[in-house]
Amino acid sequence: MQTTFTAEQLADPHVEESEKILRKCVHCGFCTATCPTYVTLGNELDSPRGRIYLIKDMLENGRPADEQIVTHIDRCLSCLSCMTTCPSGVNYMHLVDHARAHIEQTYKRPFADRAIRSLLAAVLPYPARFRAALMLAKIGRPFAGLFEALPALKPLSAMLKLAPGSVPRRSKNSAPGLHKAAGTRKKRVALLTGCAQAVLDPGINDATISLLTRLGVEVVVPKGETCCGSLVHHMGREEAALVSARQNVDAWTAEIENGGLDAVIITASGCGTTIKDYGFMLRLDAAYAQKAARVSALAKDVTEFLATLDMPEPTVKPELTVAYHSACSMQHGQKITRQPKDLLAKAGFTVKEPREGHLCCGSAGTYNIMQPEISAKLRDRKVKNIEATGAALVATGNIGCITQIASAAKLPVVHTVELLDWAYGGKKPAGI
Ligand code: SF4
Ligand code: SF4
Fold it and tell me: DSSP for 65-132?
């Protein structure tokens, strides 16, 4: 694609990067066929190619974002299916991240939209606040229908509907500490215990620590870890995302320098995609660029890491058929496709892959709150495909997908690592 940025515009490193990305796009439109919003809405402006044109036009003309571009960029799930399909290597992720930051800086959203976004940014990344909000949601749930009737408050209604009926008890494993390897220590890793996941399903971190330590891996939950920043990053709140990224880089760098790390383990693939991008996000920060790149290189999804270990024979033969749902951030964001399925099969599960596995379930961070109608269509399509496999349960590697699919599926939805921990001598996951 030809571009006409001026030398002055290109002096901005963010514009320079976006220009390189735009030039790679050859307008072929292959990406449209695999874009969930194009498949659902059928509008070119809700396809990757359409959005790329809109972003190019906005950035090239150096103008503030307007309602049209905000509408179509907000509808993008950041699922990155387009990046998997694109034959020209267009880095849509970095382009849309730049567009979102530009929107945040130049566009004033309606009051209700601003208020809900600020509420999400102030609550979700902080486990104590999120836990308190989930408790309050129980009281607010009867009003969900009322909020749904008011267009500006639909996200509030979606939020209440998604909140679980009960909040699990806190796990001590979410607190900073050291979990020693059983027997001879083979590896040492840091675990990101996360924000929303640690509240919604603490059993995921428990299973991860239980399995890794049994396999001879020492697990440290470092002091100072925080939310990975992806939530605010996807809202275009770049500075807030970088504050979180720097805090995590500091926490993990301290561990690298005091005891060493073989990996930084992440159990939510949405967070993994962002942490693997810290090197890029902090590339312009001289004090952090190198440290962030080192952290990104060490970041591993738990299944990616487990696939590098010599797994023993499973101790339990569950004889269950599992539908494996590959989260977008897992398959498109991190290109991890084979490892979770291979690990489940090796552990004795029969693995089925639902049709249209490349399409998003509609969770996508806070998308199911901010775009509830499109999200519900994608969720129902996903659940139908999953249930058609005839599997007894669903396994996936992202808490957002677990919450989204479980809100409509009749079968249990668990994290892949919970099944692996069970097969290798750990606890049977709750709900099976
Ligand atoms: S990230 Fe997903 S929703 Fe957004 S343009 Fe790409 S394929 Fe479409
Ligand atoms: S597939 Fe790639 S090159 Fe083709 S239109 Fe989409 S982004 Fe551009």
Answer: --HHHHHHHHT-----HHHHH-TT---HHHHHHHHHHHHHHH----HHHHHHHHHHHHHTT-HHHHHH
Q: Is the CB of residue 189 less than 8 Å from the CB of residue 219?
A: yes
Query: For the segment 106-139, what is each residue's pLDDT rounded down to a tens digit?
Result: 999 999 999 999 999 999 999 999 999 998 888 8
CA distance 361 to 339: 20
DSSP labels for 326-384?
Answer: --HIIIIIS---HHHHHHHHHTT-EEE--TTTTS--S-TTTHHHHSHHHHHHHHHHHHH
Alpha carbon distance 382, 395 (integer Å): 13
**347, 375 contact by CB (below 8 A):** no
Cα 411 to ligand 1 centre (Å)? 28
For residue 1 and ligand 2, the question of a CB distance below 6 A is answered with no
Q: What is the pTM of this model?
A: 0.95
- Name residues contacting ligand 1 (CB within 6 A): 35-37, 48, 51, 76-82, 92
- Cβ 219 vs Cβ 429: under 8 Å: no
User: What are the residue ranges of helices labelled H in 191-259?
Assistant: 196-200, 203-214, 230-233, 238-257
Q: Cβ of 341: how many Cβ atoms within 10 Å?
A: 19
Give the count of beta carbons closer than 10 Å to the beta carbon of residue 23. 13
Q: CA angle 429-431-432, nearest 5°?
A: 70
Ligand 1 midpoint to CA 51 (Å): 9
Tokens found for residue 374: 């499109």
Q: What is the DSSP string of 342-356?
A: HHHHHTT-EEE--TT
233 CB less than 6 Å from ligand 2? Answer: no
For residues 59 and 191, what is the distance between their CA atoms, to the nearest angstrom?
A: 39
pLDDT, tens digit, 9 for 90 and up, residues 184-214: 999 999 999 989 999 999 999 999 999 999 9
Cβ–Cβ < 8 Å for 275, 190? no
48 pocket-lining for ligand 2 (C-beta < 6 Å): yes
* CA–CA separation, 98 and 269 (whole Å): 21
What is the CA(213)–ligand 1 centre distance, in A? 38
Residue 91 CB–ligand 2 contact under 6 Å: no
